[in-house]
Design goal:
Blueprint lengths: L3 E2 L4 H10 L2 E4 L5 H10 L7 E4 L9 E3 L3 E5 L4 H6 L7 H7 L5 H6 L2 H6 L7 H7 L3 E6 L3 E6 H4 E3 L2 E2 L5 E9 L4 E8 L10 E10 L2 E10 L6 E2 L1 H7 L7 H4 L18 H19 L3 H5 L1
Parallel strand pairs: 1-3, 2-3
Antiparallel strand pairs: 4-5, 5-10, 6-7, 6-10, 8-9, 11-12, 12-13, 13-14
Length: 288
């Protein structure tokens, strides 16, 4: 029989996590469908459940002088409603497109990255935000892993068997704003065919920082480092014209029931260009 643990403190949760094999449950919007799918294929073994939904302080959003800290139980709805600077506009836009309202009210930001799906809507945004993942363990204390290193492969992460992800840390970036675009078979309640997220910071008219990420077009969502380098020091209004097909050469989109690899690659190129146009849509560009 499956055992169900529901601790109220992080220390207790970490003790349970370190002492036995458990599935960590937060919002449950991925765990329960996966369980049903396994049963449908005749796999009836169910690991014990460690429910962290009432662990104290995990739902908090905190601001420090250098960063924002999103607790592990923070939901997509909470993100969408939070008062945050333009740096988070893209992430908040993704929050309004993850499933329906019921899913947004239950699903967590951290659960989205721990599932490690190539189509996880939060992952490109967190890559573009230069986020770090905070992990805690009973014996090892707390460590921070850059988002770019957290997802190690398809459905695989750097989270050890004795660790629990406790927060996402996003450093502040002055003068930055962001955008997110998602392509699906319809406008909502759909798994992404391709998606792009971007953060740009400017000083006057020139780009001082650029981070562009693409999801659902490779086993692990990734940033376009060549494009980012090409944008630095250039006028933001020229960003869409700087983009080249070669900047997406590292992507490895697959054929599946939602789209072909060729379609995904072409869509990603068009979406990156559209996103750059939106990010560059300053009053000066409109006048020009």
């Amino acid at each position: 029989m499956t055992r169900y643990f529901r601790p109220s403190t992080l220390a207790e949760a970490l003790d349970i996590r370190a002492s036995q094999e458990v599935t960590v449950l937060a919002g449950g919007t991925d765990v329960y469908p996966a369980k049903t799918q396994r049963a449908g294929w005749g796999e009836f073994r169910h690991p014990d459940i460690l429910d962290i939904s009432i662990v104290e302080d995990l739902e908090r959003l905190d601001e420090t002088r250098e960063a924002y800290r999103f607790g592990a139980m923070m939901t997509w709805s909470a993100l969408a409603e939070a008062l945050l600077p333009p740096l988070f506009d893209g992430y908040k836009k993704a929050a309004r497109q993850v499933g329906g309202m019921q899913v947004q009210n239950r699903a967590t930001l951290v659960g989205n990255i721990c599932t490690a799906s190539p189509a996880g809507d939060g992952i490109p945004n967190l890559l573009a935000l230069n986020a770090e993942v905070e992990l805690a363990s009973r014996d090892g204390g707390v460590r921070h892993v850059p988002m770019a290193q957290f997802i190690t492969g398809y459905r695989q992460t750097a989270c050890r068997h004795d660790e629990i992800v406790t927060a996402l840390i996003v450093p502040k970036l002055r003068g930055a704003h962001s955008e997110f675009l998602k392509l699906g078979a319809r406008s909502y309640l759909v798994i992404s065919i391709a998606m792009v997220a971007g953060v740009v910071a400017v000083d006057g008219a020139l780009v001082t920082d650029a981070r562009i990420a693409v999801g659902a077009c490779s086993a692990v969502p990734q940033r376009l480092s060549g494009l980012e380098a090409a944008l630095l020091g250039q006028p933001l209004i020229d960003a869409p014209d700087i983009l080249e097909e070669a900047h997406l050469a590292s992507l490895t989109p697959i054929d599946d029931v939602r789209a072909s690899g060729d379609y995904r690659r072409a869509a990603a190129l068009a979406m990156v260009r559209e996103m750059l146009e939106i990010l560059a849509d300053t009053p000066e560009r409109r006048v020009a």
